[in-house]
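ok so i was messing around last nite and threw this chain in just to see what happens. nothing serious, just curious
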Amino acid sequence: MFLDKKLELTITGFNRDIKDVIIYDANGYENRDKQHDYGAELEAGYSFNERLSIKINYAYVDGKITQKIAGKDTAYYNLIRRPKNNAHLFINYQVNKNFLISSSLQITGKRTDTYYDPISFLPSVIDLEAYTLWNLYAEYGFRKKKFNIFVDAKNLTNKKNYYEIYGYGVQGFNVTGGVRFKI
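result:
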């Protein structure tokens, strides 16, 4: 935290190498492949005042698997359903000491998925398009915020023309709500 405790930055990175990835083939389970994944995440938040704040995060993930097929190393991107680029934007407004409203924009980058043809049983790679969802959350706290009532509305624009998993529909606009209490 800096700039008079108004700005917060977090940067995280990772680099992971796995030897002997467990695979399943005609002989059953065995340790065979190598996996190398790497990425970074950046998060920045700014409080304009005691009531209004904004936060944004961005994540980049990449990786590949290396397989020994017919005595030859073959490497390819295999992070199925994981976007290389992903971002979230949050805006929070504390109306008063008990009432909070928050809006978020979720931006999910394009991904790949595996499709198994039901006739040939052969897999193929399918591209999943990027999508953006807009969400809204509200919370009211009672008794010094020990008892809260909340409403969480997801996908406000009722977007349904995308896949999270190829071939499976997604929820359109939906609302959940509930109560939360601290003992």
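not much to say yet. The chain is about 0% helix and 65% strand.
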